[in-house]
Amino acid sequence: MLTSLVVVPFVGALLVIAAGRLAPGAGSTARWVALGGSLVTLAVALGVLASYDLDGSGMQLTESSAWIEPLGVHWALGVDGLALVLVLLTAVLVPVVLVAEWRTGEPGDGIPAPGDPDGTDHRDRRATFGAWVLLLEAAALAVFLATDVFLFYVVFEATLIPAYFLIGGFGGTERGRAATKFLVYQLAGGLVMLMSVVGLYVVATQQGPASYLVSDLAALDLGVVEGRWLFLGFFVAFAVKAPLFPVHTWLADTTQTATTGTSVLLICVLDKIGTYAMIRFCLGLFPEASTWATPVVVTLALISIVYGALIAIGQDDLLRLVGLTSLSHFGFIVLGIFVLTDQGHTGAILYMVNHGLATAALFLVAGFAVRRAGTASISAMGGMEKAAPVLAGLFLVAGMATLGLPGLAPFVSEFLVTLAAFDYAWWVGAIAVTGIVWAAIYVLWAYQRSMTGPPRPVPGVEGESLDHAGAGGDPRVIGDLTTREVGVLVPLVVALVGFGFFPSLLTDVIEPTTTQVLEQVASALPAAEGGN
Amino acid sequence: MEFTAPEIDWLLVSPLLAVFAAALVGILVEAFTPRALRRPVQAGIAGTGLLAALVLTVVVALELPSQGGGAAHGEVTVTGAVVVDGPAVFLWGLLALVAVGGLALFTERRVDAGLPVFAGQASVPPGADLGSGPGIGTGGAGETPGDGGAPASYDRWEHTEVYPLLTFAVAGMMLFAAAGDLLTMFVALEILSLPLYLLCGLGRRRRLLSQEAAMKYFLLGAFSSGFFVYGAALLYGYSGTLSLAGIAAAVGAGGGPTVLLLAGVALVMVALLFKVGAVPFHAWTPDVYQGAPTPVTAFMAAATKIAAFGAVLRFLYVAVGDARWDWAPLVWVVAILTMLGGVVLAVGQSDIKRLLAYSSIAHTGFLLTGVLGLQGADELGVDQVSSLQAVLFYLATYGVATVGIFAVTTLVRDAGGEASGVDRWSGLGRTSPLVAGAFAVFLLSLAGIPLTSGFVAKWSVFASAAGAGAWPVVAVAITSSIVAVYFYVRHIVTMFFADPPADPPAVVVPSPATSVTIGVALLATVALGVVPGPLLELAGDAGSFLR
């Protein structure tokens, strides 16, 4: 069942390519095939949810078969509460992104294609876009399901190739540079992790037959020093992925140039791999080292929260701004993870889901605004709420969710993490709380500058302004959201409100896993302290 | 003194003999066959010889007797001069495969308007009416065919000796990897090197670069051979024998002047490290890789590395394995220098063949990292990947990807030959997605991205070195890999996301032989990335060297 969750989007991607090759102009068919593939994946994911036993503990629906026997590598999949919520998040976001980017890759979509800087290219690249998105989904789902460290590493890196081509193939003018920066950063992080992956093998073979299964590795008798070194390798890779200060600099460049759909997949799905893996591998395999590293990690998380928010406030590019808010949010998630309390963990996992929904909504609505305004520069926008009230309204809702307004889902998780931070140390909590204040500033100020105020004059037309409701279809005049665009945002908003009022829907799934992880950490501690 | 004929197990050395036979027959054919027939006949003979060697290698592999309680298989034959053991047979098979790929590229004529890759004669001077007139590849006074440049006239002057040269080189390489004493190793070194020097100088395009490459390679190569002989002499002085097993026995017994041992090992290693292109003996690599005709580069880059690492491993593990605490620091330093030097110098390259040359230097460093993983059988954990297994696997994946990637570079052409400038490849992903895609897969494999063969190879050498405690070297290897990723990825960006130049190079459709070579290499690169298990097990089953 879990294997099919990986295979379905993969086969879907192949079908999309095939559909795109059928006939010239078959891109239109291809995007329907892509959407169909993502919806079937969603159905399988819901099937997994249905067969998941909420009261059960540990990995469920596990599958395992030998893959590379000499290295002890298995094709091993399994799902627990943590993996389940992230699988569902991914499965929901992909169709949303495909619909939001419905016109991406169309001939003359205005997106500069390789070799065509002006965007006047008339090649049909819809099949290409759909295929890369589905491949990305397949790899990302495999990451969340993998219970073998080697398999995890392979699919972890495999996510980068589709992401790279999505950024480089469909981004703005600086896309080549951004794609390179993204890939080199991520691969560098991955290679550092490779060292620890190799190290685990060496330790494992010293103690018995080689096996990369997480369950076998967790049972290894790691020395304190070895454990800490190995932890470090994993943590660096996940910090780059998450991203955490100071290895976050790829983030804003990427979100600035990628299409917003790609950004959603990167920030809301792929970056979750970083925080997911911190729980699964850093805490799961190296509990002693994780407690040892807590002070440093908490400090980095606090810096990320404050620094991310402050530089977000200073941005003029709307897409950079949204990207950088995530730096702040990931600071919260990492903080929640490394305070090592039940409350913090539940909050952090909840935060991953809520951040995925809220930021996806914010990115998409920002993308719609940017496409209408013809610029991502906040100072060049203004007065959009008169011309496009629905857009402005949804922008506000998504923004409010991001800043943690009570009644919307992110509030619950932010609250839990902050409480846990106060329990950890009062000053940690105090600094984390300021993140919420900064969030209010960057969201509301961005809203004020881009949506309210006097309408911006239409470039090149004397005396005309953006709210001029030119029924003649003047392309320079802003229209409100189309039905498709509203349709994309509605499920996200419904989820944000729904989980805002009923967070227990998620916490019931999450909590058993949380308890288990923390028990594992706690059980490792006395032994390690004795060893010191 | 009575002369006793050595006992030779003819079956065991039959793969070697097949290749030697093909080479010798090739020379006779060159003298007695009409010009028009030479090319097909020569290619046929070389191909038959190599395929026969491949088949015989498999037969031999199945016949190898088990030795030393199953840790090794094989037989020492020809009075100790040739050791046919598991690793040797593995390398033979690999060499024969790579050579078949190289041979396929040698026969290519379609990419350059029906003209061969090689100059008509090695003595053709640079600038001898290249590319346009009837004098192509002929040169010498009075030899210019006056028939207006119809391609048929060039057939008369095609250099068909390249085929026997190729087979001679392969034969030397196979012997190199299976040599049981230093003298055989030296003879093999010369047999493999001399044809390669000559092949490098035969480029029909860019004669000057090609001849310069041959000259540099020859001078430096001859110099390094001198080191080998000197080192062998010192080791003879230390142990009283040239046989690797004998030296091992002397090292094990201790005693003897250690200075001779250390100096001998160092000098022999200089020659071997020169062949694999390790820093600081790498200076020839970029010039030769760039100047040699690309099919030669493809063959040489892959096969020489395979054979030379076979010799490095055999020398270090068999002859002086017990003295590894003496040579390990040397290899540590060379490995670190090689990796860093290779990747740092590669970053600034603007010529694809030079870029790949520096990348090959870096790969030499990674392979040396694997060599450092030498551990005794008792120190290895259950089923732990041994260093020999790791290096053999790495050589297989690297050899295949190298032949493939150089084959692809022959397809993108300007008026003056291959478009080897990196910027000339801009936007290729748009105009020729298949060629660019294949090139990208090979680059990703060289970069060691998962799901390509290069990743598992890198993983295994790192794991074996780490298992032996060479953590600092592994750390440097990881750092170098990060830098390497940068220049590989940058090239992929150029191909897929940059704008094509105003006068884009032509992408030609090659002959079926080249297409099949590229296709097979591509398939193997992906397949070994997804299911590396069988080949890893095969490399493991090769067992250790026979002493």
TrEMBL record, chain A:
One of its GO terms (molecular function) is NADH dehydrogenase (ubiquinone) activity. It is an enzyme of class 1 (oxidoreductase). One of its GO terms (biological process) is electron transport coupled proton transport. Its EC number is 1.6.5.11. It is a multi-pass membrane protein. It is found in: Endomembrane system; Membrane. Keywords: Membrane, Oxidoreductase, Transmembrane, Transmembrane helix. GO terms for cellular component: endomembrane system; membrane. Residues 146-435 form the NADH:quinone oxidoreductase/Mrp antiporter transmembrane domain. The chain crosses the membrane at residues 6-23, 32-52, 72-100, 127-144, 150-170, 182-204, 229-252, 264-286, 292-314, 321-341, 347-370, 390-412, 424-447, 486-506. It holds the Pfam family Proton_antipo_M. Coiled coil: none annotated. Belongs to the complex I subunit 4 family. This is NADH-quinone oxidoreductase subunit M. It comes from Nocardioides zeae.
From TrEMBL, chain B:
It is found in: Cell membrane; Endomembrane system; Membrane. It is a multi-pass membrane protein. One of its GO terms (cellular component) is endomembrane system. GO terms for biological process: ATP synthesis coupled electron transport. It comes from the Bacteria. Residues 133-153 are annotated as: Disordered. Residues 179-481 form the NADH:quinone oxidoreductase/Mrp antiporter transmembrane domain. The keyword Cell membrane applies. Residues 133-149 have a biased composition (Gly residues). Its EC number is 7.1.1.-. The keyword Transmembrane applies. The chain crosses the membrane at residues 12-32, 44-62, 89-106, 162-179, 185-205, 217-238, 244-274, 295-317, 329-348, 355-372, 392-412, 433-457, 469-489. It catalyses: a quinone + NADH + 5 H(+)(in) = a quinol + NAD(+) + 4 H(+)(out). One of its GO terms (molecular function) is NADH dehydrogenase (ubiquinone) activity. Keywords: Cell membrane, Membrane, NAD, Oxidoreductase, Quinone, Translocase, Transmembrane, Transmembrane helix, Transport. PANTHER family: NADH DEHYDROGENASE. NDH-1 shuttles electrons from NADH, via FMN and iron-sulfur (Fe-S) centers, to quinones in the respiratory chain. The immediate electron acceptor for the enzyme in this species is believed to be a menaquinone. Couples the redox reaction to proton translocation (for every two electrons transferred, four hydrogen ions are translocated across the cytoplasmic membrane), and thus conserves the redox energy in a proton gradient. NDH-1 is composed of 14 different subunits. Subunits NuoA, H, J, K, L, M, N constitute the membrane sector of the complex. Belongs to the complex I subunit 2 family. This is NADH-quinone oxidoreductase subunit N. It comes from Nocardioides zeae.
